[in-house]
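User: Hey, quick favor. My workstation is busy. Could you predict this chain's structure for me?
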Amino acid sequence: MHIHILGICGTFMGSLAQLAKSQGHRVTGSDANVYPPMSTQLEQAGIEVQEGFDVSHLQPAPDLVVVGNAMSRGNEAVEYVLNKGLPYTSGPAYLSNHLLKDKWVMAVAGTHGKTTTTSMLAWVLEDCGFQPGFLIGGVPKNFGVSARLGESDFFVVEADEYDSAFFDKRSKFVHYHGRTVILNNMEFDHADIFKDLDAIKTQFHHLVRTIPSEGQIIFPANDANIKSTLDMGCWTPTVTLGGDWRAELKHVSGSVFEVYQGEQLVGEVRWKQTGQHNVNNALACIAAAHHVGILPKDSIAALNRFVGVKRRMELICDAKEVKIYDDFAHHPTAIESTLAGMANSGEFKRIRAVIEPRSNTMRMGVHKAELPKAVEQADEIIWFQPKGLNWDMENVVEQCNIPNRVNDEPKSVLFDDIDAIIAHLVQTSEPGDGIVLMSNGGFGGIHKKLAEAMSS
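Assistant: No problem, here it is.
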């Protein structure tokens, strides 16, 4: 079968393309922005990608067009598909109908931590001999790829709440029919598609309605938003984190913690990850693995060998006793948790956060009031104001502009130029600094540029 994918270079769609190719299909695609690393992955997989959305890409007609959720009415290729009556579907629907049939689907949903928790869970199953398939919105370092078919009945999927396609406004995760489902947390996000928190709860409850009564839902006992969603109706046994499963920190950074099932100590995690958020992710992973028959001690042993995910506190440069990290954090809660993990590690003389408000929700200014609290643990915050931002960042910068704990210089500064940020960091960095670049996008190539400048 010839499958053509519109919007192929997104993380989800690119991973889906590689899975379809592994199934033996001929896969082609098109996108407005074709660039590494996804373009490189697709090329290596033997998938032809064309730039733009010219209708010639759909001639001769493919057997099926898979439409990415970034595509909208008015797009030349979309209009051609509709006018010519070409068979089409969404990415999540393709995944459900062609890859997840007859699988034990383990789905990880929630506002934060989906990619990391999915990576942990896939690795635990792999390390314990389950040979799972997976599709993840990032690249777990234990695997080096974001998706694979697997060789068993188990499939681990990152279950995103974003909408499926222009013709299907349900969240992606309703298509997956998860049997073991982790609900990591729930907050307001994606303000471009959700009016309010209640709209998000509605979608999560659609997910809950699809989980079989012989399945399991795993969620944090202290998350009021998830609790109220489940109170709308739940037909599946639940397991709570902080109740049925809990963790006790042995080091404030989260690098060492004990795991309890009820009141029974079942093991101790000693790993390179930090932050309370990662402790929570690991606990959810252990509980989910237990549901499919993996003993806690074996999950813990696997987690001790988990080496992380690209772009999740990924060390990209260690030069002149200055460490530079790439982190995907772009929501105030995620920013706060990452910085707290750095502070609690005791590793850094000074923590310097470089933040790009890039997500649609951040660009709309929805979370601007929460940002000053989110960055309290940093010794310096370097804000980047991109073009087209819907709000002025100067007020937020001013609220954070108190003397830092290392010296009396202002804690918060604002730039509108990437090269100026790099120059500032290179000129002012000192041994013991930890610099974290926070964005859910390419951030103008700052990662490579800063690493090269700092190294030289």
